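Write out this protein's structure.
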Amino acid sequence: MPLSMTKIAYRSGSIDNLRAWVEAGEEAHMRTRYRPTRHAEMIGGSLYWILDHAIVARSEILGFAERPDGHWTIRLAPKLILVQPKHKRAHQGWRYLTERQAPRDLEEGEEPGDAIPGRLAGRLTKLGLI
């Protein structure tokens, strides 16, 4: 199975803004300074987006392309797929995510429901309450 990664959806502010950016064209392009070491394993995997300390959505990784300035473009499918929210601390850069660690996709018409916000879920987990 392809390898995936997590990334903070900075400057998005909301799922709606993230969806508008990802689904604006034929592909979404995300710039990054370095190509992931395991990039070949990631084609066909997903980039899982973190908003407010929770993984909330994913986009399929189509490939990687080097830019003229030496940075890299991560090519993403123009579809944002909502997932069952899962607590994830903020981090810089990306982190690899195996299929076993990834949250499940929400079914068509399924709502995230009364999911606990990421920060609160993290605190309750530390207290052993969830």
